[in-house]
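Good morning,

Attaching, inline, the backbone tokens for the sequence recovery test we're adding to the shared suite. The designed sequence is right after.
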């Protein structure tokens, strides 16, 4: 077994070791994660792919402290998530993690700007205007800040959600199917931004996706099957991701 990464390893933003998650009991038990170990690199965009039910969302939820593993360890930004009390977890999520979901989850009555700064307002933290401007310019929303979500396209709404995830300068952003509701052009805008947030703003992003084109924006793609890590690709292209998925379909391992 590999040693557990800790916060002293600057190369990793998160690690899981021997992660098991069982939902339900007895005959109804589902082993969503089956002894999975993985490291997520700091300063990279990592994509997680795999068939439906392979454990992608469960892994992400366990990493983010939104779900509790049955056994195994999770370290995020140097913190042993399994040892944290609920209040500490809430604080970790609020101050050091960012989230982007398939549904944009914007507040319809607030403007784009108010939606972006909402997490800071809730945490009663001052907005770092310089960083806010950097993020807003990076997502290309400067001229849309006073608009409400209903006045924005799907891609623009998801870019607001991305800016909201980044405005608190999180250690890592977890994105679960961020382009699942978007057409290909809007997807490209959002993915381009997520990648730029890593390359130009030094953020770290972990993204679950079904889409090989979306995965090709990542530095690295991890493949799950049956709750296990079964392969990975560096510098993916849509073609190499498709090939890997085909290999996985036949049981081959791409590592
Ligand atoms: N709350 C739950 N209760 C019971 N079973 C669950 C629960 N959440 C997930 N599962 C099961 O765990 C397994 C893994 O689910 P998970 O959502 O992590 O897969 P996924 O790879 O994200 O799937 P998809 O691509 O369809 O979103 C599935 O068999 C699922 O039915």
């Amino acid at each position: 077994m590999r040693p557990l990464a800790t916060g002293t390893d600057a190369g990793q933003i998160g690690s899981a070791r021997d992660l098991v998650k069982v939902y339900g009991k007895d005959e109804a038990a589902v082993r969503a994660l089956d002894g999975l170990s993985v490291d997520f690199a700091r300063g990279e965009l990592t994509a997680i792919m795999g068939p439906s039910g392979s454990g992608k969302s469960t892994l992400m939820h366990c990493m983010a402290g939104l779900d509790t593993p049955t056994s195994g360890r999770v370290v995020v930004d140097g913190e042993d998530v399994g040892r944290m009390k609920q209040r500490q977890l809430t604080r970790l999520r609020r101050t050091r993690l960012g989230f982007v979901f398939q549904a944009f989850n914007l507040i319809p009555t607030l403007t784009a700007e108010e939606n972006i700064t909402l997490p800071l307002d809730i945490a009663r933290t001052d907005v770092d205007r310089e960083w806010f401007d950097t993020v807003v310019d990076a997502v290309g929303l400067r001229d849309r800040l006073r608009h409400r979500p209903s006045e924005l396209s799907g891609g623009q709404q998801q870019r607001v959600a991305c800016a909201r995830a980044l405005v608190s300068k999180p250690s890592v952003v977890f994105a679960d199917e961020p382009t699942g509701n978007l057409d290909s052009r809007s997807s490209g805008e959002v993915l381009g931004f997520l990648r730029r947030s890593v390359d130009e703003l030094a953020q770290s992003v972990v993204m679950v996706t079904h889409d090989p084109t979306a995965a090709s924006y990542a530095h690295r793609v991890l493949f799950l099957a049956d709750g296990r890590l079964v392969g990975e690709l560096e510098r993916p292209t849509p073609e190499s991701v498709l090939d890997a998925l085909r290999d996985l379909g036949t049981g081959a391992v791409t590592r």
